[in-house]
Amino acid sequence: MAATILAMVPSYISRSVAGSYDNEAVAIFALIFTFYLYVKTLNTGSLFYATLSALSYFYMVCSWGGYTFIINLIPMHVLLCIVTGRYSSRLYVAYAPLVVLGTLLAALVPVVGFNAVLTSEHFASFLVFIILHVVALVYYIKGLLTPRLFKVAMTFVLTVGLALCFAVVAILAALVASSPTKGWSGRSLSLLDPTYASKYIPIIASVSEHQPPTWPSYFMAINVLAFLVPAGIISCFLPLSDASSFLVLYLVTSVYFSGVMYD
Q1: How many beta carbons lie within 10 A of that of residue 142, not counting itself?
Q2: What's the half-sphere exposure (Cβ side, CA atoms, 13 Å) at 40?
Q3: In 10 A of CB 73, how many CB atoms?
Q4: Start and end of every Oligosaccharyl transferase STT3 N-terminal domain (predicted)?
Q5: What integer pLDDT is reported at residue 177 of this predicted model?
Q6: Does residue 211 come out as left (phi exceeding 0), alpha (psi in the -120 to 50 range) or beta?
Q7: Where are the domains of the chain?
Q8: Do 56 and 37 touch, CB atoms closer than 8 A?
Q9: What is the per-residue pLDDT for 194?
Q10: Vertex 128, ends 122 and 129: CA angle to 5°?
Q11: 49 CB contacts (<8 Å, ≥6 apart)?
Q12: Which residues of 46-63 are buried (b: 16+ CB within 10 A; e: fewer)?
């Protein structure tokens, strides 16, 4: 049913094999497949699906520069799960292999290279990776010690963890400060600040796809999905799980970015 509805959406038709025969036709599949495997790993805790998710991410890196959306959205969801007290071993298995294996594979792509570890688009994934390990260590120690000893151990772990996070943030800040664009690409800055391209990079702003869409064109592009989105959001909360919370976060960020850049 979802595939049938999606097949009637004009914006998807123009970006699929039926419409453009462009790299985005491959990239859209890789994007959705990576998210599918990530959610599958969240539900099963299988290292096999986590490895496939990293390989699918590598496929996305090879096909389109929009892969940075993946490596920022998934860390946002992991951080959301940690903050809301939904940490689990399945969350760790779903995220850790994706960052380690996915980053190593992404660095093999000539166009990306060391940008996979040196640009600001990737820093959020590394910071959340450290936070995830600190939280995992806290949960592991909690299962070994008595409540009294756990308080002492947690103080030590959090102190060391915060010191490590501050050190990483300081290193990343030094790398970012050395770049005129603070380590961000012009396209990413245009997404975060819709007025950036028109002020500093006119060639990006001159492309019609990089302009914010008008309301008529926006509704025409997403077609029937505009009326099904509210029902989809409600269903995600009945009940709210790790997988459904990811779908809500995916929806919110997609609505924002599609409203900023009609790409």
Answers
A1: 12
A2: 15
A3: 20
A4: 1-261
A5: 62
A6: beta
A7: 185-263
A8: yes
A9: 58
A10: 90
A11: 37, 40, 41
A12: beebbebbbbbbbbbbbb
- Asked if 159 and 152 count as a contact pair (C-beta separation under 8 A), the reply is no
| Residue pair 130/172 in contact by the 8 Å Cβ criterion | no
Give the Cα separation of 121 and 103 in Å (integer): 12
Task: Name residue 169's amino acid.
Answer: V
Q: Which amino acid is residue 96, in one-letter code?
A: A
Four-point Cα dihedral 84, 193, 39, 245, nearest 10: 40
d(CA 221, CA 246): 24
Tokens of residue 127, six digits: 């910071």
- Say what the pTM is: 0.78
Per-residue pLDDT tens over the stretch 38-95: 999 999 888 999 999 999 999 998 888 778 888 888 999 999 888 888 888 899 999 9
